[in-house]
Amino acid sequence: MNQQITVALFIDADNAPAKKIDLIINELASYGAVMIRKIYGNWKNQTLQGWEDILLEYAIQPIQQFDYTKGKNATDMAMTIDVMDLLYSGKIDIFCIVSSDSDFTPLAMRIKAEGKQVIGFGEQKTPLSLVKACSRFLYLDAKDDNANHTGIAKKSGSELKCDTSLMNLLRDAISHACDEEGWANLGAVGSIISNQTSFDSKNYGYAKLSDLVKAIDLFEVKLSNNRSQMFVKDKRKS
Fold it and tell me: In terms of CATH architecture, what is 6-139?
């Protein structure tokens, strides 16, 4: 029997929207069992009422952290200490950090140095340093009322093609994974991208990498004979 993947969730209540908890829990469930769920903040602060209202419903353990010095956030340190204690225990496979605060960048890098995955959630204001430090990072901002279940409005094929960074990322990965005819297994392409950056197709409004690639008419796609695998090719190589 395969060993169950264990996930630990750590939320910085001051820098995360409570209304997105469903998205967070549902996403983490696709990785494994969320065995530990902790949220940090000064619960005397009325601005955390939104989180306080849902703690029991989602079985999230609140950790009280007083503001010892005005203008200084002690929550970061308390959360970091707990994460490191758990990291050293060796019992957790995947760590999730919910925050838009760049102060957690060194923590994310340290977790990855131990060979563990770091899944990050935050708003568009999150500094790039934290986004890149995570194995995968998902934005929690809803762009408009018509956004899909990920909370992110779907970008059109034209918008995707204009994203130079994205196009270079896809083309480079395909180039490294392709055979002599230019066809690359999409699974291998995804693995190469994941090893390089915190890319996630959901940040572009697409549930899967395959959906995103199909939306860009600069790539050819085909399925294997048993239709279990997808292959992609840069049309410039045709």
Answer: 3-Layer(aba) Sandwich (3.40)
